[in-house]
Amino acid sequence: MKQIRAVALVLLGLSMILTSAYFFSQYEQEAEIAGENAQQLLAALTEEIEQNQEQNLYDTAVQEQSTGQMLQTSLQGYDLVGIIRVPGVGLELPVLDSWSYDLLKLSPCRYSGSIEGQDLILMGHNYKKHFAPLRQVSPGDRMEFLDAGGTAHAYAVSVTEVLKPTQLDELTASAHAMTIFTCTPGGYGRFVVRCDPVE
């Protein structure tokens, strides 16, 4: 009887290991595809911004930003508001205007707020080619948000913190001009980066 139980426990352990390996491999594949999709979208957005700058298409950008809204552009069926750059960790990604679980698999998204309102919040998965590198930033590190009109907004990291998934008020009630967050490994918390403008 003891031998049967021992064999059953070994088999159960093996099945759990195989199941974990399967889900990990699925996650890695999803993350790789997400990284490739984001880079394709980044290339298209960069090209459009450069073309707009060459044609001096600034009036619409200024008008829309003065109303507290984010200037948008549509590419490949998606609405985008700009590009987030974190030079210290080699991060450069397009930012979608709104978020959903499907959109987050493509690229980081705007959770709420705007540049003009000094309350911009960005969110993204902790894929290694999305926001996972954010865990390496420290206070003082520079960031840049290039909006869809081609205007660069410079920031510096003020503080990083880890919040529980239930701490939505703490996440959104911030005096900092830009907040970026992603899941911690395992998804048990949120790694949050608070940023403020610099010259």
Description:
With 199 residues, the chain is α+β, with helices and mostly antiparallel strands. It has one domain: Sortase, Chain: A (Beta Barrel), CATH 2.40.260. Helices cover 35% and strands 29% of the residues. It contains four helices and nine strands; from the N terminus they run H-H-E-E-E-H-E-E-E-E-H-E-E. Strands 1, 2, 3, 4, 5, 6, 7, 8 and 9 form a nine-stranded mixed beta sheet that branches. A hairpin with a 4-residue loop joins strand 2 and strand 3. The radius of gyration is 20 Å and the shape is globular. The chain starts with a helix and ends with a strand.
Topology overview:
Layout (H helix, E strand, L loop, with lengths): L1 H53 L4 H8 L6 E3 L2 E9 L4 E6 L4 H4 L4 E4 L7 E4 L18 E6 L4 E12 L4 H5 L5 E6 L6 E8 L2
Parallel strand pairs: 5-8
Antiparallel strand pairs: 1-2, 2-3, 2-6, 4-5, 6-7, 7-9, 8-9
CATH architecture: Beta Barrel
Helix content: 25-40%
% residues in beta strands:
25-35%
Poorly predicted spans: 59-67
Q: Tell me the name of the CATH class.
A: Mainly Beta
What features would you highlight for this structure?
single chain; Sortase, Chain: A; alpha+beta; 35% helix; nine-stranded mixed beta sheet; 199 residues
Describe the structure concisely:
The chain is an alpha+beta fold and 199 residues long.
